[in-house]
Amino acid sequence: MGQETVAYYRDLFVRQHKWVRAMARRRFGIGVADADEVVQRVFIVAYGALQTQSVKAERAWLSAITRRVCANERRNLRLRREMEAQYCVSTPQSGPEARLWANDIVRALSKLDSKQRELVDLTCLEGLTLYGAAGRLGLPLRVAETRLQSAKATLCRHLDGAVPVNPTKR
């Protein structure tokens, strides 16, 4: 990639990132917490596309990219909510039951290997999508998916109450 393309990309980001963020929020319904991640994904796609094409109408081009990225984000959010509902575990609010339950969770997490634990931390604690966690770890999506399924199976084996709410729906 030439220096002029890199300079153009940098200028494109400086000129348009606020517009892309505002459009993602207002037009495509992305929440405040997810807007910056959407902007980042839009410009990653734009950077890759700039290597093979030139752009005449920047905003129309960025609007098309933003629409696809936002659609993916909404789909991933819906899938994440469905998974959370499927694997919902009732938790004691306070007292000795809560401490015992927390100890059980810590014990179950200790059964995971370091690679599984890292993936569980990114997806469950940091709230990344599987796609985002795979990207951060530099893993193919299929490897991350298999690793997370294995981690979930291990956790379910070691936690009595952590079974799917509807085990027939997978």
- What is the mean predicted local confidence, pLDDT? 81
Kindly name the structural category.
Answer: mainly alpha
Q: Strand percentage, roughly?
A: under 5%
Largest sheet: none
**How much helix is in the residues?**
over 70%
Per DSSP, the total helix count is 7
Folded structure, characterized:
The chain is mostly helical. The chain has 2 domains: 3-84, Rna Polymerase Sigma Factor, Chain: A; 87-158, Winged helix-like DNA-binding domain superfamily/Winged helix DNA-binding domain (Arc Repressor Mutant, subunit A), CATH 1.10.10.10. The protein has 7 helices and no strands. The chain has helices at 3-26, 32-50, 58-86, 96-110, 114-125, 130-137, 141-158. The longest helix is centred in the middle third of the chain and has 29 residues, at 58-86. The relative contact order is 0.09.
